[in-house]
Amino acid sequence: MNLFYFPGACSLASHIALAEAGMSYRLVTIDMEKRTSDGRDFRAINPKGFIPALELDDGAVLAESLAILTYIADQAGILLPREGFGRWKVLEALSFMATEVHGNFKPFWKKAPDAEKDRSRALLLRHFATLADELGGGPFLVGDRMTIADAYLFVMLLWAARHEIDVPEELRTYAAQLKHVPSVARALAEEGLT
Q: pLDDT tens digit string along 89-146?
């Protein structure tokens, strides 16, 4: 399986999930011209042009973080409860991060006016406060085991630190603890982020 990624991008969540699941994968980077490190045109692989993309061994391609993370969890049988309310809480957290948190970082990636960045920063602060409230004092976002929601939240917290967005103390502690989880440490090292 090939994971198309860019170091430190949202694809890191899928990378962490693959490592945590113990699945076999090959990392393929994408450059700014949408060329892969193995010489292909990434748009021919994923016409949307966005990462991550997961190319299965049979050549099928799956795109979009929510779909890839859920696929990894379903294939591995871990990282997403198979039943019960915990399953839906993980999917709720993933959806919230993909729609409300992730998108609000966009002004920080482009040369947006300060007023636009300030609006996004205020929304992000509110969203991270919501996620901090949902932690509930446990080591993971939902339950006592790592899930795909933790992989995604970890990446969002890395971005917050990079853009000097002051998240609640509970989330800073949570992110610091996740860095020591072997799958997270492995993915960070493989992407040159340590």
A: 999 999 999 999 999 999 999 889 999 999 999 999 999 999 999 987 778 999 889 9
Beta-ladder partners of 53 = 4, 63
- According to the 3-state scheme, what is the secondary structure of the chain? CEEEECCCCCHHHHHHHHHHHCCCCEEEEECCCCEECCCCEHHHHCCCCCCCEEECCCCCEEECHHHHHHHHHHHHCCCCCCCCHHHHHHHHHHHHHHHHHHHHHHHHHCCCCHHHHHHHHHHHHHHHHHHHHHHCCCCCCCCCCCCHHHHHHHHHHHHHHHCCCCCCHHHHHHHHHHCCCHHHHHHHHHCCCC
pLDDT at 183: 98
pLDDT of residue 111: 86
Position 136 scores a pLDDT of: 72
Nearest Cα residue to 68 out of 96, 76, 122: 76
